[in-house]
Recover the amino acids of this structure.
């Protein structure tokens, strides 16, 4: 089976999963979704499942990324065996109507997750286990596709050194001052996985800097979202005395980060997962829990700020 036919088969299979019917699994069976955020009723201060039956289904979904203009939505979904991998899906707003999610043109063959846009929307970064000639081991690297003049995407490019290593690199996020934050299991970290940042100058990435003990521990940290102005950072902790789930840290006036604060009591539910993201307009906070995508008013973030 070639890549094109594989993509078509996956898209059809996903339509059937969403329950639109085996006999009429075509684009016309997808509901007409108008308005921002796939036409969904916007949540308040209690987390709600995002687009149930459309994006969040009985299958495992994770990640939630809107383009800076808000007219594209990317997420990942797990394909069960024999596929047993994640693929990146996209829905686009065309003439005011959101399209049925389909496999992104650069995804479908390998496990791909953790998408994020550059702040100008010209580049889409994601993490993949696709092989590279110099490092055929099946760990995650950060890749990028570039927006073409016709609105499509280029072929994926591996960021290479010094960002990608023999360890696993995941979940990039970008800030206004030209930094890319990400998680890595590279040698020399404090734990099994740490948070780092690189400064981007004329397309070149500096050697990643470990954020230190305020954020990283001897256990594991990843799935990081950093506000574009670096006012706060949301991190997923794995293991240790802090437990597992989403934690938030705020930038202090001296430039250092506060100790991480557990967000569970603010979100009022047991969170096992991560994949934090705040929409480009700053209005809504998305995260993944137990194979579904949730969203909540981003004002909830300020409720976590130390008094």
């Amino acid at each position: 089976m070639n890549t094109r036919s594989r993509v078509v088969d996956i898209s059809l299979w996903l339509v059937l999963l969403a329950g639109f019917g085996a006999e009429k699994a075509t684009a016309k069976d997808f509901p007409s979704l108008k308005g921002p955020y796939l036409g969904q009723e916007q949540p308040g201060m209690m987390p709600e499942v995002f687009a149930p039956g459309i994006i969040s289904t009985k299958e495992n979904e994770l990640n939630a990324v809107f383009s800076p203009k808000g007219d594209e939505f990317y997420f990942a979904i797990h394909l069960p065996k024999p596929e047993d991998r994640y693929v990146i899906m996209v829905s686009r707003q065309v003439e005011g109507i959101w399209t049925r999610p389909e496999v992104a043109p650069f995804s479908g063959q390998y496990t791909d997750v953790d998408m994020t846009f550059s702040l100008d929307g010209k580049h889409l970064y994601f993490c993949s286990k696709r092989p590279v000639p110099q490092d055929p081991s099946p760990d995650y690297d950060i890749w990028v596709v570039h927006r073409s003049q016709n609105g499509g995407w280029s072929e994926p490019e591996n960021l290479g050194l010094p960002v990608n290593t023999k360890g696993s690199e995941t979940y990039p996020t970008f800030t206004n001052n030209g930094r890319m934050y990400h998680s890595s299991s590279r040698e020399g970290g404090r734990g099994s996985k740490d948070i780092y940042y690189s400064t981007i100058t004329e397309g070149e990435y500096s050697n990643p800097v470990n954020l230190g003990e305020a954020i990283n521990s001897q256990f594991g940290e990843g799935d990081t979202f950093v506000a574009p102005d670096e006012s706060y950072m949301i991190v997923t902790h794995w293991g240790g005395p802090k437990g597992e789930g989403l934690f938030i840290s705020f930038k202090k006036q001296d430039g250092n980060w506060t100790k991480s604060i557990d967000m569970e009591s603010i979100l009022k539910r047991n969170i096992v997962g991560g994949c934090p993201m705040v929409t480009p307009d700053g209005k809504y906070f998305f995260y993944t829990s137990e194979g579904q995508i949730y969203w909540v008013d981003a004002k909830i973030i300020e409720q976590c700020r130390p008094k």
